[in-house]
Amino acid sequence: MTGTRDTSGNSRLSVRTLSIIAALWGILVCGVLVWQAYMYRGVFAALAEWQFREWDQMYPVATIALLTLLLELPLIILIALKLRRRRRNYGPVRAGLLSVRETVMARLFAALAGLAFVLALGAGILGLTIGTLGDKPFTALALDDDADVNGDFVRTRALVRMDRIGYYRERFVVTGRDLWVAPLTLSQDDRTIRAFVQIRPTREASEAQMMEVSGVARRAALPGGLRRLYENEGYSVARPAYVVFSSRASARWPFFSAAADLAIAGLLFLLTFAAFRTHARRMERRQAGNVTANA
User: Fold this and answer.
1) Per the structure, how many domains does the chain have?
2) What residue numbers bound the domain in which 244 lies?
3) What is the block-wise mean pLDDT of the chain (295 residues), using blocks of 10 residues?
4) β strands within 105-202, DSSP E
5) 6 falls within a domain
6) Residue 4 counted as domain residue
7) Are 6 and 86 in contact (CB under 8 A)?
8) Rg over CA atoms, the chain
9) 60-90 and 99-128 are packed helices; what angle lies between their axes, rounded to 10 degrees?
10) Whether 168 and 108 share a structural domain
């Protein structure tokens, strides 16, 4: 038994298959872009540098969403053309089959909503693992070795390079903050940076000071834009580099901010799913009424 086909020879299954491919492709593209954002490499890094030059800030979530949409666009257009051809071939008598388009789009947005909510939950859980109450009061942060102190409350004595402060404006979709950091080194001549400390906003550099620093350390928390800034100045920034945040809330902020933005995106996807689903059901009821009237 063969599937139902229109006069163009394309089965309804082909449209559904394309929608599945589109969803899987979108998930793959989004995953690659998230990895590039985390590692600050590839297309994402190039676009981030362009945004810094043009606007002195970047929008990571919006960048990933727009790139994913652009790379999905050919498949979306192909699905739309197939459905339009089906509508023209079937005519108004078989217009009920047009609900396939709304059903396909509804499933696509439902998948995107589910993915966004899962990622939001994951980001929130990751944020909660930073600086948990079960941690030791303080762990020594050594700047001359690769000890793992990720998420720990740390304390170290180092030269705080207030003469080399860095500023980075972190922006997601609806949330953002300004991050100010200073490198931690063992001496004035040290050109290798293994850790940074979050400092209060300041517009003027001052002399480097040897002092005791404490806070919540996160591994690989330095934004890619700041890494590029210091490397352009001739410094060697460790991979990964630590950032000692002033508080647990500040260390968790990127995860909670991303979770909030992803949850908002998931809600928008869910509303779009509901709109397509409602329209599809209306078309089905209309077609059922036409069949009854013709009978």
Assistant:
1) 2
2) 139-251
3) 42 65 80 74 80 72 82 82 68 53 75 85 86 63 72 86 85 73 90 91 81 87 82 86 89 85 85 82 66 54
4) 139-140, 153-160, 166-171, 176-185, 192-198
5) no
6) no
7) yes
8) 26
9) 160
10) no
Measured in whole angstroms, the distance separating CA 104 from the mean position of its chain's CA atoms is: 25
Which residue's structure tokens are 């609900």? 99
**Which is it for the CA torsion 267, 268, 271, 276, positive or negative?**
negative
Q: Give the pair of three-digit tokens for residue 24.
A: 């899987």
Residue type at position 131? G
Asked whether residue 3 is domain-assigned, the answer is: no
Residue type, 232: N
Q: Is residue 161 part of a domain?
A: yes
Q: Whose structure tokens read 């297309």?
A: 43
CA dist 110 and 232 (Å) reads: 44
Is residue 158 a contact partner of residue 143, using CB atoms and an 8 Å limit? yes
Report the predicted TM-score, pTM, of the whole model to 2 decimal places: 0.64
Burial of residue 75, with CB atoms counted within 10 A of its CB: 0-12 exposed, 13-18 middle, 19 or more buried: middle
